[in-house]
Design goal:
Number of strands: 10
Helix content: 25-40%
Low-confidence stretches: 1-5
CATH architecture: 3-Layer(aba) Sandwich
Oligomer: single chain
Largest sheet: 8 strands, mixed
Number of domains: 1
Distance between the termini: 42 Å
Length: 309
Amino acid sequence: MTTPPSAYPIGTPGLPWGAAEVASWLSRQTRKRGYGEVLAAIERLRTDFDVEEYGQLDYQGERYPLVALRSRGWRDDLPVGLVTGGVHGYETSGVLGALQFVERHGSDYAGRLNLLVAPCVSPWAYERIQRWNMHAVDPNRSFRADSPAQESAALMGLVAPLRERVLVHVDLHETTDSDESEFRPALAARDGKPYEPDEVPDGFYLVGDSADPQPAFQQAVIEAVARVTHIAAADADGRIIRSPMAAPGVINYPVAELGLCAGVTRARYRTTTEVYPDSPRTTAEQCNAAQVAAVRAALDFALQRGGGR
């Protein structure tokens, strides 16, 4: 794990950021890759799936279409499976895993499940390999009424007509060494709070909903992913990222209360994946494959058990 700086280079310790600090932070953000590569991958899937633009970001004149894939031949009598990736733009396998799932396995669910896949919820952050959006707001704490994040508000608008019909939702994420070397120190500085170092778990884990944890569902996903990459162990206190481990590789959060993407629907089965791409025990390809395995296991379990609200 990279040791974080003793003091974040922006702001005054103990004081939350104002407009000047946000502007200073923004000035440090540079484009490192292109969202066009994601749009091109989506375009290649148009032969078998419907492509829908559900919004557009306009950040200082830079426009980013927000695009989702839908099952062709959508049927109102079928349940909905929702897959989201790239809510945090730096979490690469969430984006690539979602696209890989649609390309290789999406057609397997035709006639059984309507698929709705938003592979890159935060394209500005994707380009900058960043957690926050342009306004230093975390989209994955912003899925709530009057959201401060355009990305989150747009996705909520897309999902709103289907909210009661979604059977399963898989939100694809990563936990990286940069969480401790950059993003959590930046968060503490932004909020005027002390930074408290934590341990980055080595391996894959899931975050379920503490209000409806569905342990058998979470376990089915863990078992499928364990065939692809290793599962994170608890730390010395029996925790993963400061949360008690509910089962091997599983912790639970109050997802709706925290404004997390996993709380955007009332799906019976919902989970957030967390892949660890910085581990010496895995590869980028395995991380993508782990995301795909998680989605497939989640959809298969939900279809087998049913139980929509």
